[in-house]
């Protein structure tokens, strides 16, 4: 899959996630903590991606070591930012973060947030 296809797929998913949250009654006017997920088996590559995410204005949490179902070990971190559930903003952030992941050879694993009353 090309990077353009990854970005387009993520942007479609962004719209679906926002619609699902709002349909479930989440507050459309609230600020949301958005956690963008990254992973890689190579800690050095992941660390360089984390530095670039920080420089781009995201809060970066400490990398964790995770064991996958097949027993393989990977490292992961979240790039965190707070803002409204604005599709245009999410699309812009996701595009930049997917490109950042591609640059460093790490995996962008999408984003998540929490329901807000």
Kindly provide the radius of gyration, computed on alpha-carbon positions and rounded to a whole number of angstroms. 14 Å
Which percent band covers the strand fraction? 25-35%
Between the first and last Cα atoms, what is the distance in angstroms?
37 Å
Q: What name does the CATH topology carry?
A: Alpha-Beta Plaits
Main sheet: strands, sense, barrel: 5 strands, antiparallel
Class from helix and strand fractions: alpha+beta
Q: Give the count of helical stretches.
A: 3
Oligomer: single chain
- Spans where pLDDT lies below 50 across 5 or more residues: none
Shape: globular
CATH architecture: 2-Layer Sandwich
Average residue pLDDT: 97
Helix content, binned percent: 40-55%
CATH class: Alpha Beta
Number of domains: 1
The arrangement of helices and strands along the chain is HEHEEEHE
Subunit structure: Interacts with the C-terminal region of Rne.
Subcellular location: Cytoplasm
Function: Globally modulates RNA abundance by binding to RNase E (Rne) and regulating its endonucleolytic activity. Can modulate Rne action in a substrate-dependent manner by altering the composition of the degradosome.
GO molecular function, one term: enzyme binding
């Amino acid at each position: 899959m090309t990077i353009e296809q990854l970005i387009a797929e993520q942007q479609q998913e962004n719209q679906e996630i926002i619609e699902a949250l709002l349909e479930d009654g989440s507050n459309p006017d609230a600020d949301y903590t958005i956690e963008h997920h990254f992973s890689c088996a190579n800690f050095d590559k992941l660390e360089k991606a984390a530095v670039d995410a920080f420089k781009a204005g995201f809060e970066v949490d400490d990398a964790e070591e995770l064991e996958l179902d097949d027993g393989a070990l990977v490292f992961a971190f979240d790039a965190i930012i707070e803002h409204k559930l604005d599709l245009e903003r999410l699309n812009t952030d996701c595009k930049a973060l997917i490109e950042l992941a591609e640059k460093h050879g790490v995996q962008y694993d999408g984003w998540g947030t929490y329901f807000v009353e």
